[in-house]
Amino acid sequence: MNMTETRETAAQPPETEKEILLDIQNLKTYYPIKGGFLKRTIGNVKAVDDINIQIKKGETMGLVGESGCGKSTTGRTILRLLTPTEGKILFDGKDITKIKGNALRKARQDFQMVFQDPYASLNPTQSVGDIISEPIRNYRRVSKKELKPEILELLGRVGLPAEAYDKYAHEFSGGQRQRIGIARALALKPKLIVADEPVSALDVSVQSQVLNLLKELQDEFDLTYLFIAHDLSVVKHMSDRIGVMYLGNMVEVADNKSLYAEPLHPYTQALISAIPEADPKKRKERIVLQGDVPSPANPPSGCPFHTRCPMAKAECAEIKPALKEVKPGHHVACILY
Amino acid sequence: MVNVTADSNKSQEKTINMSPWAIARRKFLRNKLAMISSFFLLTVIIISFLAPFITTADISKVNIMQMTLEPSGDHWLGTDKSGRDVFTRLLYGGRVSLLVGMACTALVVLFGTIVGSIAGFYGGIVDSALMRFTDFVLNFPFLVFVIVLSAIFRGYVDGLTILIVVISLLSWGGVARIVRSKILAEKENEYILASVSIGCKPSKVIIKHLLPNVLSTIIVQSTILFAGLIVAESGLSYLGFGVPQTIPSWGNMLSASQESDVLANKPWIWMPPAIILTITILSINFIGEGLKDAFNPKSNR
Ligand SMILES: Nc1ncnc2c1ncn2[C@@H]1O[C@H](COP(=O)(O)OP(=O)(O)OP(=O)(O)O)[C@@H](O)[C@H]1O
Ligand code: SF4
Ligand SMILES: [Mg+2]
Q: N or C end of chain B: smaller count of CB under 10 Å?
């Protein structure tokens, strides 16, 4: 707290604080579990359970966590492909939490998604030209022919040949398909792109090409990214700030450097210790977590991590620690801090 | 042998730059049985619908002088017990049978697809409500209902129209169920989420993204239906509850065989419709099989 104040007053040319593009407050997304005789709701999968995220314009926020911790659900809720159970989503100052119908459709122009599965995310009955021009034609009355030059330019921009225009998705490799998906997301010139594990289905050799493309496009199109990955090493290369999720909760948020240099949350420490390190001097002892991830339908009381935490104390099972800023820009949810 | 490999190699190359539809079409064109069946069916359809130009004989006029004549130069397939030319009636009958089959298929597919895709896409309460209704319709005693309804409306509305409407209203349930389950599976794909994300309205998501990807199922289903509905028409007409007796249909012509004398001694009266009906149904089914095969990405014909 003290340090923030000093920084603010000491800054000589007042560092123009970047505007916040996305502000997520106490977001919860539950999937109802239907069951029993009349298909009533008998419980909830608490896929996202009270998280806060702020993303500034032009920034890349990384989101990591094990499979099933609620990353995709978070991304999809932010883009309003799902409706949140509770909480608020402010996009560019507007509250988009509850809008629907045409208002929502209009709002979608500003935020797009790059999907995880390069095979399932492209309609097999559409040509590439159709796929990429469709977003534009959903908002502008314009013929495919008129749009063609624009689409060809986009194709070139994502590194695909002009001949791709008339082809179908099944004729491309995974990496090329992902480029098609990126071009589709770019077509509307959105402000925010949520990239949901965009390279996890690709060969390692193509992964870095696609990541580099995303980086280049960010500068060129003034994009803000929410970059989702289950792998800390991928996120490291992409993100300015990183959020670590565990069982629907945000357990640590920090800028890239301090998260890797000084992970505070025991879960983050375990994740980082699992990254293979080439330099033997830097190699640390790997923290192996015991037990399985609990079910989000029946999360543990208190700290969600206490069933596996090597540092857990008795009160961890009772008190749920809130995410708080323990160092400037470094937030963690753990009673140790 | 060499030739065959070369050919299949060529076919491998050719699939490049082809839409899934073009690939399916090519596979279908190479399926001999399906092609012969299509050719046969097309011929039957064309000849039946051109009946007025092919024969000039009167189909309805009773001719006492020419009752139950055996096939001859004048009457290629003989005459029936009322002295009407069997060949002429076969053509006109085909027209009616095929028309009833097509009209019913079109209505059934249309209605089934609308109900099934809305239920599958929206899910939840909409789905439950629509599917309860579908089950209700599916559990209707078909025959009883057709008989009662056609009895009620006979005389007020054109008998053929009633038949088409009644059959269609009672038959869409199966299509609705199949389309729904296909849509349910298909909408899990990320491209559906993507289409919502890029700003497609729900109607566009269904029509442009979901339906084209379940269309192959719908097409295969409609061929099966077409065959089934022609049989249904014939069965009902045979029993006397289908196409009004004054209009010839294959089913109506078959009902002459209810008389044991005709069945045993005058085969020219009932054999032609029986044979043509059988071959038509068979060829429609072969076409259906061919389509199923053509749409199956795993088959390599
Ligand atoms: N449609 C759904 N209905 C019910 N539960 C769901 C649904 N989708 C996801 N879940 C559950 O919600 C939790 C979070 O899922 P989510 O897909 O957001 O995780 P994720 O972090 O993206 O995982 P992954 O790395 O596997 O993509 C999981 O336990 C999952 O089983
Ligand atoms: S609160 Fe307790 S259980 Fe949770 S991470 Fe901190 S020490 Fe571990
Ligand atoms: Mg996911």
A: N
